[in-house]
# Entry
Amino acid sequence: MTSELFGRTAAGEPVTRHALTRGTMRVEIITYGAAITAVEVPARDGTRANVVLALGSVEAYETLSPHFGAVAGRYANRIAGGTFTIDGHRYTLPINAAPNTLHGGPNGFGKRNWRVVAEEPTRLALARRSPDGEEGFPGNLDVEVIYSLPDEGLLRLDYRAWSDRPTILNLTNHSYFNLAGEGAGDVFDHEVEIAADAFTPTDGTQVPTGEIRPVEGTPFDFRTPTPLGARIRTGDPQIVIAKGYDHNFVLRGPVDTLRPAARCTHPASGRRLDVATTQPGLQLYTGNNLDGTLVGPSGQTYRSGDGVCFETQGFPDAPNKPGFPSAILRPGQRFVSSTTYRFSVA
# Structure
């Protein structure tokens, strides 16, 4: 492992960057947002490239970043109307994606500087305490995310959390992948397969309606490898609402068991990404809101469709949807989840 000063926040806090290396794979993580800023892997011909979108300074991550590589929380994705109820008590959160709360609010986990609690050659553990009332959420929450490279080509993320009051929790990593290389253009030629027979359609504000809808016969059928661009411009109302894909898929298999979630292949380079998770859901997001105003380390601008996110998660708005898997964390319970990203050459 190597570490260095990446910069300082507007408040003067130092942000450090840490690099994990194993074989031909190199991963860089900064303490701000616990964000992944680089994943360097080889192509079929051996050419190495960073395959995640990133920014070049702490200031950019503080003021401009659409959660590039960050840990989203305390509740990733959307909460309808910024309200939820636990045990008869109603909580109100700040609205930052009107009329809803997104990724824990305007100052969620992706906008916080985490502390390093363990450093090893192929392992980095970051942690923070989210105090009672932060962004409106109840309970003092202690949370830890561990990045590790257990094998060559394998990046593993393990999450742990505890609370002293009943609260809600949904954690994910918000990396935008482009297997052609950061700044290489759109990902519409990437072939994607998702281990899901159903998805959760949304209303006009992108909050799930509560319906579990089969993917068969819809643009959301990724049960076999399909180019991302094959149906992304269809007039399906769900595609129109999100301006592309930005939807939760209901993953097959038992929750809390590490199982396949998605596969993404870039035919030209041969780079392949396999995602596995213990979580019940996977948000497929095609960077629809990237508008060409952000510039990556490559010096190229990022536009809509220039990255794809595979956000392993609990279901969006689960606290307000009794039919969804519960997102409540109570005192004495321990939140545990794992996600792996395996990179290989097809």
The mean pLDDT is 97. Residues 284 and 310 are 5 Å apart (CA to CA). The longest strand covers residues 141-151. Helices lie at 58-63, 237-242.
